[in-house]
Amino acid sequence: MADVIKDEVVEEVVETTEIIDEVKDEVVEEVVETEEVVEEDMNKKLDKMIEEVRLQLEEIKAKNAEPTAEELELKAKATELWTKEVQLELKSAGLEDFAEFISVEEGNSELLQSKIQKFQEVLGKRELSSGYVPQNHRQTDKYSLAEKNKDTKSMIGSKLSKLFK
Length: 165
Description:
Layout: H1 2-65, H2 69-92, H3 109-130, H4 142-149, H5 152-163
Helix pairs in contact: 4-5
């Protein structure tokens, strides 16, 4: 009888173990399925978040790419102010006639000053080298000036002044 009870207990343990294994397999399958569902949900949510961020980034880029009317107006005023500053600097240097030949990027006053200085140096050298240099020029004296004007008194005065020097 003990053997029969022992055999029955062993059979029940084996059956219980088989049931536990089956339940365990079902639980594992459900956990795997649940993990897959959770992973799919997470991927969907992650994709949705990525798309939202991408849209926000595109909006920001669009805003930065298209300047507003106020920004365009400010830029136009800044350009106009720079042009007036350049014209004023050229006028103070006496080079307003050459304004179209001097171009400097906006806001670079140091470069403007150096270009004005170089331009003045070049013009000064050209004036010196191309100026009139008389040849065989003699000075006019008082006598020849008086002779030209047919002023006899001055002619005699200039001759006498040479004698009493």
